[in-house]
Design goal:
Two copies of one chain form a homodimer.
Chain A: E1 5-12, H1 22-39, E2 43-45, H2 62-69, H3 80-89, E3 92-99, E4 107-113, E5 119-124, H4 144-147, E6 157-160, E7 163-169, H5 176-183, E8 189-194, H6 208-225, E9 228-233, E10 236-238, E11 241-243, E12 248-250, E13 256-259, E14 266-273, H7 278-282, H8 287-290, H9 298-301
Parallel strand pairs in A: 1-2, 2-3, 7-8, 8-9
Antiparallel strand pairs in A: 1-14, 3-4, 4-5, 6-7, 9-12, 10-11, 12-13
C-alpha cells in the first residue's frame, strides 16, 4: 500500500485572560505554528474560540459580547499575521473563533485553511451546550445558547491539500451522529477544538470524569469511523476558571498516539499514516456491506426520548 | 432522589467445545445463575450463542448447522431447566441462541426473561459480521452472514420487572446507531452477549486491539446514552480457537465498575443505581434540548460512504 502521511500537530493553548491583548495571543499562536513546522507538521489544529477568553462563562449583553469577542470577518487585520505565517511556512490549519454574521446570526465557528493560506471550509457549531438564561446561583455561566445560534448546516468533509478533512467543535464530540455524518463522507482526518470547564455547573459531577468522557468519546469515534482525530484544548485557569487540557491525537485504531502533558501552550505531533484506517473501512466498518439504515430511522424521526417500540 | 437499584450479574462462559453435551453446558449456566442469586442479582446476562460452541467458525451445510446448533423453539426441553431454576430463584436473564424460524429465516437471537421465567422480548441480530463464502486460506471462518439472516426488526426496549431494558449482540456494540436507537426509547440497562475471536481473519490486526475496541465502544456508548451495560463473553479456547474475555459492567458515567479477570466461567456483579444516568439525561444528554436531527439525515439516507457534501 502506498504511503500517504499527514504530519499532524495539535496546538494546545493555555489560558487567554480577559485582559490579554490580541497581539499577545497571536504571538503565542504563531510561536506554536513555528514549532509545529519544525517538527514536520503539514497541518495544525488550534482550539475552539482560540482568540479570546472563553467568554460564554460571563453574562453580558449580546452587543457587548459581539463588540468584544466576535470576528467581523475572517481573515481580518487582527489575525492576518497568523495566516501570513502559515502561508510562509506552508502549513495548513484549523482555527475556532466567534463569527459575527449579521445576515444569518452569530455562530461558534471553525475554519480549515490550506497550505496556501486559503480558507477551504467553514463549520458552525451544531451542538451548543449550556443555557441562555442567567444562572445567578452557578459559579459561572455557560451561555453558548445565548450568544450563538445553532449552526445552519451539517457536518461536512473538504479536500485540504489532498486529505479528506472534517471538523467539529467541543460538545459536538460527545454526539456519535457528528462523527458518523463525516464518516459517511469519507473523512480521513477530523479537527476538533474545545474549551471544557473542569467543573460541571449543572450537577456535582466528579471532576475526573470530564477528562474521562473527553477521551473515551474521541477514542470510540475515531475507531467507529476509521478516522484520525486531532483535538486541541484551550485550557488552564482563565481568570480563575479552570478548563481541562488533554489535547490528543487519536488513531483510527482508537489508540491515543500523542497527548499533552500540561495545561499550557503545548505542541504535540504525530506523523500519521492515512492508510491505517483502510482495513477498518474495508472490513469491520465496511459501511456499504454492514450498515442497516432501515433499522436506524428513529435517529432522525425523533429528537428526544419517546415511547418504546416494543 | 428515590433509590432504584438493579442487581446486575454478568455470567461469562468459558469454552463450550463441539463435543460438550447440552446437559454439561446447562449445568454450568445453572451454577452461574445460582452464584448470581447468592450475590444479590436481580438479572443475569449470559453470552451470545450461549448453548453451543461458536459454530460460525466452521464451514458446513445449512442443514447440518440447523440440526446441530439451532433451537427449534424457546424454551424447549433442552433448556427448560435453566428457565425453571431462574423462576425458582426469581432472577431474570438475557440469553443468546441460534433461532430456527422456518417462516422468517434463521437468526442470531437473544431474549429477555423476567423473574417469573416469562420471555418478555426477543431481538434478532442486525449487524452480522463476517462473510458467507468459504475462505479456504483463513485459519478459521466467520460465517454469520451464511448461517443467519439479518434481523427483521430494529433495536427495542422492554419493561422487565420495572426496568427499561434493551439488548443487542456482539458486533452490534461497535455501531453507535445500535445504542442511540435504544437511548431514544429510554433504555436504562442494555444486555449484550458476544463471541469475539482474538484473531482477526481479515487483516493482521494486533491482538490487543480486540479487547481495546470492545472496551472503548462500550464505555463511550454507555456514556453517550446514559445507560448501564452488562456485557457477557463466551471466551477462552474452544477446540483450539481463542476468543477474548473481558466481560464487563459499565456505568452511565462510562466507567467500568466490574470486569472479569479470567477466560473461564466467571460471575461478576454490581449493585447498579438506576438513577445514576438521570443527571446526564437531564443536562448534557438532554436529547430533546440538544439533538439536531435535521443535521443527521445522512445517517439514514446513505448506507455506504459517498461524496462529500461540501
Amino acid at each position: 500500500m502506498s504511503q500517504r502521511r499527514l504530519g499532524v500537530a495539535v496546538a494546545q493553548v493555555g489560558a487567554v485572560h480577559v485582559s490579554d491583548s490580541r497581539q499577545r495571543t497571536l504571538d503565542r499562536l504563531i510561536a506554536l505554528l513555528q514549532e509545529a513546522k519544525s517538527r514536520g507538521a503539514d497541518f495544525v489544529v488550534f482550539p475552539e474560540l482560540t482568540l479570546a477568553t472563553f467568554f460564554p462563562r460571563y453574562w453580558m449583553s449580546q452587543q457587548e459580547a459581539e463588540e468584544r469577542y466576535f470576528e467581523h470577518s475572517m481573515p481580518n487585520p487582527n489575525v492576518q499575521a497568523l495566516f501570513d505565517e502559515a502561508r510562509r511556512l506552508e502549513v495548513g490549519f484549523y482555527l475556532g473563533y466567534a463569527e459575527l454574521c449579521p445576515k444569518e446570526g452569530p455562530f461558534n465557528t471553525s475554519i480549515l485553511v490550506n497550505k496556501k493560506g486559503q480558507i477551504i471550509g467553514k463549520y458552525r457549531k451544531v451542538h451548543l451546550p449550556g443555557h441562555s438564561d442567567h444562572k445567578l446561583d452557578a459559579p459561572f455561566q455557560h451561555l453558548e445558547k445565548k450568544y450563538f445560534q445553532v449552526g445552519n448546516d451539517t457536518f461536512k468533509v473538504w479536500g485540504v491539500d489532498e486529505v479528506q478533512m472534517g471538523m467539529c467543535l467541543c460538545n459536538d464530540r460527545r454526539w456519535p451522529e457528528t462523527w458518523r455524518v463525516m464518516g459517511l463522507q469519507g473523512a480521513e482526518f477530523v479537527a476538533l477544538g474545545y474549551n471544557t470547564p473542569s467543573i460541571n455547573i449543572h450537577w456535582p459531577e466528579p471532576v475526573h470524569l470530564r477528562m474521562h468522557h473527553h477521551l473515551i468519546t474521541l477514542q470510540a469515534s475515531a475507531y467507529q469511523n476509521a478516522v484520525w482525530i486531532g483535538a486541541a484544548a484551550k485550557c488552564g485557569v482563565e481568570d480563575g476558571h479552570h478548563m481541562i487540557g488533554g489535547s490528543v491525537i487519536v488513531a483510527p485504531t482508537g489508540e491515543i498516539v500523542a497527548q499533552a502533558s500540561t495545561e499550557e501552550d503545548e505542541l504535540i505531533y504525530f506523523n500519521a499514516d492515512l492508510n491505517l484506517g483502510q482495513p477498518f473501512r474495508d472490513h469491520v466498518f465496511n459501511f456499504a456491506k454492514h450498515r442497516r439504515p432501515e433499522h436506524y430511522q428513529l435517529i432522525v424521526e425523533r429528537t428526544g426520548v419517546g415511547a418504546s417500540l416494543a
